[in-house]
Structure formats: structure tokens, C-alpha cells
Amino acid sequence: MNFNSLHFLIFFPIVTLLYFAFPQRVRWVWLLVTSYYFYMGWNPRYAVLIATSTVLTYLSGLLIDRENKKTDKRRAARNKKLWVALSFILNLAILIFFKYWGFFTQNVIALGGFLNITIEMPTFDVLLPVGISFYTFQALSYTMDVYRGDIYAEKNLFKYALFVSFFPQLVAGPIERSKNLLVQVNQPHYFNPDNVRDGLLLMLWGFFQKVVIADRVAALVNQVYGHWSEVAGISIILATVLFAVQIYCDFGGYSNIAIGAAQVMGFSLMENFHQPYLATSCADFWRRWHISLSTWFRDYLYIPLGGNRKGKWRKYFNLLVVFLVSGLWHGAQWSYVAWGGLNGLYQVIGDILKPIRTKVLGVLHIRREWKAWKVLRIVLTFCLIDFAWLFFRAPSFMTGIAMIQRVHDELWPQSLFLIGTDGSMGLYTLGLDVAEFWLAMASILLLIVVDIVKEKRPIRPMITRLPVVPRWIFYFVSVYVILIFGAYGPGFDASAFIYFQF
User: Fold this and answer.
1) Range with top average pLDDT, 373-387, 453-467, 483-497
2) Which of 11, 89, 259, 500 sees the fewest Cβ atoms within 10 Å?
3) Are 211 and 488 spatial neighbours (Cβ–Cβ below 8 Å)?
4) Which residues have CB under 8 Å from 12's CB, separation 6+?
5) Coil, strand, or helix at residue 419?
6) At residue 274, what are phi and psi to the nearest 5 degrees?
């Protein structure tokens, strides 16, 4: 069930109204039932997988908790490691089978061909369950939190199942922690008009990001990336810049709708995006982008690997491992690994060059607080991040390399302004006509303004403190803009969110 579907626009109000109508003691039951219904909307068989992951991690939590009560601490510590290892092995085995088996077999067969060895591997015709990477990581974080003693094991299987399957953030995050969401499952929630208003406002912004911006620019991005060998290099550059906008508005829009929907019902989910394209370095970007995943890898991979505690070169190694794994997490494809590796390499090189950069700034008498210097850093950071996005969006790693070569060989900036035989400018033959293109540009400009303002102060209080009449005019105009200017119908791919495939 997509957030931008009529089904959800009916589903969510009914779920919320009945949630507040039911007594407190059974509300969590209603949310569990509706969460599984929400997930089964894609494929009822998917429920078996999420239930399996839930039971495995639930049992591991109980077994770890039991070891904590034993007097033989050495044996208990050994057994706790065993239960954690089994939980990770079993859950990751499910994830690997459904998401990476085809990738693994293709590469083994390709390697065999390179060595002139014929290798036959079993193949399985399975669909990638939507959101499997998200709920698997969320469930595994619970196992680690119990193991570390950050939380007590949840005794109620069904309340724990709600933590894993909570529908607003189930299929594309934020990847919640048990210390936040599981605790809230056990707390009473009351109808709060402020929560409802603020949550709906955030959902409204999320829908604007998705259907007005992301799905509109997707038409140009899909056209260029689908026919990259037939367009000039400047068109590839334009499409890659717009893809950076698309993926931000698509994924950020989903996160805002999810956080807003949860807030309406009284739940607080973690922030997942914090004006990422205003980052002044690649490290800063990853403190702002997909925060729930970045912090997951920090807490459950980077720090256990040693973090920055074992010397500079070990730190660089750990960073590269984390980003290569992050790339593979996003997809079973070498282009994703290249994307992750580039982002890790940016941070390693940036840290190595930091002393040189500091010395150059001193020689040139450039002060870090100068706005011009900050703007330059933002632009340079965006260029680096956007270059990596090309591999993320390209159909394959080799296609990404070929697209870069085409940009180099056939840039042709003037091609965007050439007039064709039908009288149309080249710019408007890339998937968006004149009106749609400039509507996209206006929407992106609004996005930039909103992010700049949010960098300094929260926007929602500025809206909610308006007098009644202008405030309700704003609400109605916002809904009208989304309904009228949202990208629907033929020519637009207003369907699933990009991150559903991960």
C-alpha cells in the first residue's frame, strides 16, 4: 500500500479514528492488525518473512535476558554471544537469500567463465520482499540492544511484533531503535490536537515533496537515463542533478509522511533527514542523510570494528568497510557498491587533506565563518555527492562508467537550446514540456527556500502561530497545490517510493 495511493488515504483516517475510539489497553492490538494488513497489501506471503524475523529476534532477546540472571557470568557472557550470533546469522541468511542470492550466483558464474571453468549454481525465482532490509535491521538492533543491556527483553511477543511492523515506518524507515519505539508501544497515547495538526502538516509537506517534485522530475530522469546513449553529455549532467532532487524528495517525502502519520497517533519517530544538501562536507552530508541508517551502521558496525579508537589508518579502513556495506545494503549490484565506496573515499580523502586545507585557509586569510566560503563548500559537497548518485541511478556499474565517458566526449551544452523540427527546444524533449519543466524548477526553488529557513528555525511553529484565517487559507492552498500540481496520470511514474526496493 503506497502512501500516495487512494487506498492509504482511506486506510489511514479509519485506522486513526478507530485507534482513538478503542480503549487504551487494546489500541496496540489494533495497530498490530492494521500494520500486518498494510504490509500484506503488497503480497500476503511477505507476512511469513516478517513474522519469522520477529520470532527469531524475540526469542534471542528472551534467551539473552535469561543469561543475564545466571550467576556464572563467564558462561553467561559466552552464551549471550552465541544467541546474538545465531540471531544475526539466521536473519541475515533470510535477507541474503531473497536479496543477494542472484547477485552472488551471477558473480560466481562470471568468475568461473573468466577462469574457463563451467560453474552451475541453483537459481530461485523469488521476489524481493518490500522493506526487508529495513525491518531486518530494526529487529537486529533490538537483539544488540538487549545484549548490551540498553533495554530489557520484551516479554509480550505481540507487542514486540508491533515494534517490528509498525506500519508508518515499516517499509522504508526511519529504522527505529527499541529504546525509542518499543518503549512507546508500552505507553498510553491520548488524542492531542497539536500532535494531529503538526503531524498532518508534516505529511502534507511529504506529499508535496513526493507527488509535486519527485514524481515530476522523475519523468526527465527516467527519459535521460533510459536513453543515455542518445543524448548529449549536458543532458546526463542535468538528469543527474535532478536525480539528487528526486531521491531526496522521494525518500525524504516518505520519511516525513511516516513521521507525521506516527505523530498523529501520538508516536515520536526519529528525524531521518536534516537539510542534507546544505552540508558543508561529505561527512556532514552523512550526518544529515538517512540518519537512521547512518547511525545504525555507526552503532552496530563502525564502533564494533574499532571506530576511530585504533589509529588513523584503522579508522579509514573502518569507514570504507561501513560505506561499502552500506552500498551493498542498498542493492545487489556493483553500481551500489561503487556509490558506497565513493562516499567512503570522499571522507577518507577529506580527513587526510584536512591539515593542508587548514594551512591553505590561513595563507589565503580565509575565515571559516565567511558566508561565501560556506556557500562554496556546500556547492563542492553537492557536486561530489551528485557524482556518486550517478552510479546509484545507473542500471549497472559499467553503464555508469559509459555515461561518464559520454559526458566527457559529447558535452554539447548548446544542445539544450537547439530548436527541433517540431519547434520545441531540446531542453523540453527530455521528458518534461515547457510548463512541466518550469513548474518543477519553481517547486525545487521552494524546496531550497524551505530548507534554508529550516536550517535556522523550525517552520511548523511559524505556520501554526498564524492567525486563524491566514492559517486555514494556507492549509487549503497547500492541499489545492498538491491536488492540482501533483504528477498524476500518463507520463508520470507516480507509483512506489524509490526506497521500497531496498
Assistant:
1) 373-387
2) 89
3) yes
4) 261
5) strand
6) -135, 75
What residue type is 22 in one-letter code?
A: F
Residue 493: pLDDT band (50, 70, 90) is low
- Cα–Cα distance measured from residue 285 to residue 80, given in angstroms and rounded to the nearest whole number: 36
Q: And the C-alpha cell for 382?
A: 553537492
Number of H helices, E strands in the chain: 20, 0
DSSP element (H, E) containing 484: helix 468-485
Residues forming a β-bridge with 425: 419
What is residue 154's DSSP assignment? P
Q: What is the mean pLDDT of residues 246-270?
A: 94
Percent of the chain at pLDDT above 90? Answer: 53
Residue 297 CA neighbour count, 13 Å, CB half:
24
Task: Give the residue-averaged pLDDT of 496-500.
Answer: 72
| Listed residue (276, 280, 277, 258) closest to 268, CA to CA | 258
Name which of 204, 200, 183 is nearest 192 in CA terms. Answer: 200
**Amino acid identity, position 122:** P
- pLDDT at position 490 is 54
DSSP state of 276: G
235 close to 501: Cβ distance less than 8 angstroms: no
Whether 297 and 322 have beta carbons less than 8 Å apart is answered as yes
- Residue 422 pLDDT class (50, 70, 90 cuts): low
Strands (E), 284-345: none
At 324 the pLDDT is 94
Range among 275-289, 429-443, 475-489 with highest mean pLDDT value: 275-289
Burial of 244 (0-12, 13-18, 19+ CB in 10 A): buried
CA 300-301-303 angle, to 5 degrees, is 85
Active site residues: 330
Among 10-24, 91-105, 469-483, whose mean pLDDT is lowest? 91-105
Residue 27 CA from chain centroid, whole number: 29
Beta bridge partners of 419: 425
Cβ–Cβ under 8 Å, residues 440 and 249 = no
- Please, which residues bridge with residue 340 across strands? none
C-alpha 32/C-alpha 417 separation (Å) is 55
Question: Which residues neighbour 450 within 8 Å (Cβ) at sequence distance 6 or greater?
Answer: 205, 459
Q: Which of 5, 7, 496 is nearest to 251 (CA)?
A: 496
Burial of 457 (C-beta count, 10 Å sphere; 0-12/13-18/19+): exposed
For residue 44, whether the previous peptide bond is cis, meaning omega lies within 30 degrees of 0, is no
